[in-house]
Design a protein that fits this description.
- The structure is a single chain.
- It contains no helices and 57 strands.
- By secondary structure, the protein is mainly β.
- Among the domains are: 1-150, no CATH class; 430-503, Immunoglobulin-like, CATH 2.60.40.10; 513-595, Sandwich (Immunoglobulin-like); 599-690, Immunoglobulin-like, CATH 2.60.40.
- The strands form 15 sheets. Strands 17, 18, 19, 20 and 21 form a 5-stranded antiparallel sheet that branches. Strands 36, 37, 39, 40 and 41 form a 5-stranded antiparallel sheet that branches.
- It is rod-shaped, with a radius of gyration of 42 Å.
Length: 692
Amino acid sequence: MKKGTRGSTAWRARLPVVTIVVVSVAVLTTAVTGAAKPPPGIQEIPGGHWVYNSLLQSAFHIDGGTAGIDAQVAVPGDPGSQVVQGDTSGYVVGGTRITPFGKSDLTAGPPGVPPSGEVPAGVETAGGPYLVYRQAGQIIRLGDPPAPISAGGPVGDPVATAEGTLWLPRIASGLLCRLDRGAENVSCPVTLPAGHFGALTLVGDELYFVDASDGVVRAVESGGLGVPVPMGLGAGADLRTAANDVAGRVAVLDPARSLLHLVDPAPGPRRPITVPLPPGQYDAPVAAGSVVVVVNRTSGRLFTYDADGRQTDDKPLPADGGTARVVRGEDAHVYVDGGQGAHVLVVAKDGKVTDVPVVPPTEKKDQPVPAQPAPGQGPVAPPAQRGGEDGRRGQDPGTDRPGPSKPNPPPVTPPAVPASPPGAPPGVSATGEAGAVTVAWSAAPANRADVTSYRISWAGGSRTVDGGTRRVRITGLANGTRYTFTVVAVNKAGTGPGASASATPAAAAAAPALTVSRRDDAAMLSWTRPDLGGGELVHYLVTGTGFAQQTVAGTSASYPGLTAGNSYTFTVRAVTRTPGGQTREGRPASRTITVPAPTITISRGRDTSSENCHEPDCAQVNVTMKGFEPGKRYAIRLSSSSNTDVRTEYTTTDADGSATYNELNYDVPGQTIWVSVQTPDGRITSNRIRWT
């Protein structure tokens, strides 16, 4: 079949057990995919950008170099549809259908059914184009036939290298995955460090990972991540990164502080260039060549900057309803499509912006050649300004009667603008807490039909609330796991594009398992690391009765200077840092110990005899010690009123600092006896008894 004709096989969809995927596409003939030259009269459309005008139900091609429209194809589609293109075909992608059209013959084919109602990321690259349904974790390689490919789970914003490798971050799973050109399956060769998150970007055609969790950028290598290069920005939970570099620098936007950073990813980097932005709600930056584009949704303005951070232009977004879409075209220009596709802003390579109305291209007609003046005469007036032969204007030549006047054309009433799906909800935020996240947003643009509901989706679930709700608390989440929440608005015309925010639930740390013992006059504390509730350990706070608070990095501490007879309560709690950067004190563990005053008590025990101790006066001396240092060997000295050192023997205290010793004996009636023990604080003496 020659290029310029089209087959009639329709797209069709099927439902497997779990998810809906696009499984077949029209058998597009060489009119779309063939390599033959087009027949006479059909012109190849050069690379550029296609936009879909939903009011005119047509796709228009824009030449980025001239900012002009040079082709149009009638394609039925949904409001807010985007257009992605491959080598020979384009695809109008909406929420309910995907319709192909030939770039040579400019005719549309039968539509197919998308796998999800979410707005996909369109990727134009070699071997593609691709549609990436990020929350659904589905990839569609468009073509004849289309190829549905599972990403294995929700993914972040994709990037594609020049040779056609599609990279997809699965941050919730800690993986960087790739889909090679022509491959049927996704592989995930790079594992991120535990708890790290960020985005992918290309510098030249080299892949980098912008690690927002610790403020560094790393090259993605075959064996994993390269050496971390500090960005000089600190850690930020909500940094947004352009998919392509700006003259060798990475464009990173900090929406919380309204700052645009241009970061050098090379080792020994140059200092980042920081550009303050007007306050507002910002999308991720889009970069091409030496230009970076940022959109302030709050003010409805587009700002462009060069590679040194100098502003090059400032323009209002197209005011044709819906949510404007910023894309990097196949020709490396940046385009901003109006929500209805009635206007496109074209960003030139110098950063200047041109507003292009999206209307059918006009045909150029031959213009009459004005008469040339005779030598020596002045310029000849155009025919519309000259009179007849007698020089009178507005009359038929050779007559005195005025020429017939042309009637004014009737006024053209523009078609009524129909309702379209809502815009993206502005101001989406997410705040983590223990096992939950609170998601909040502002009212989405209604686009001529009241918003009836909002749908909040995340990895593992979704929730729908009424159109008047602006906040919802999502519970049952795993502490320490980062979640991205996407909010879309719904009205009678359909579902609008989503806006997202991320947060990580985190609880206060649990109480450590605390043990307190005593050695001499010191309390010895030790504990085990508790469950940190999804946070990061900062240090431990340790307190003791009458002592100054200690900040401890390890799991032990000591408090010397205990006083006998006093009680002491010791408390240990972990201090953690939440993923949002807040510090939080955990639950405390407490133990109380009493330091008893050492005492020795003696009494006469059972009768006995020995070589030097004779009956009937010989008996054991029962010695009971309490409040001494645990596990220590002490010398017990027996004394009498006539001999201060009758005998000395040794015993060791138990874990409570107590001991009982019955190996001393005595046999001198009428004497007063006692026992004493030397300690670091002095000699402890027992009670005295008279031996009878």
